[in-house]
Amino acid sequence: MLSVFQKFGGIRPMAAKIDVPPSTVKSWHAKRDIPEWRRSTILKKAEDHGIELSEGELIDIPADAPAPSDEAAA
Hints:
By secondary structure, the protein is mainly alpha-helical.
């Protein structure tokens, strides 16, 4: 399962798409916690960018899934 950060393409792409500094998104990523007052904006921006996202994914944030290794792809 992809995290909200991965769905947006990473920390910097997410920050650009939701109009907040990358350091803010990095903080959320590190804590795996997005403030409740930011969630409606993130859901709206996800919709604007064609990103499928539910409010539950902003509450229960999994650790980022590791990228497939070269060995796994072979």
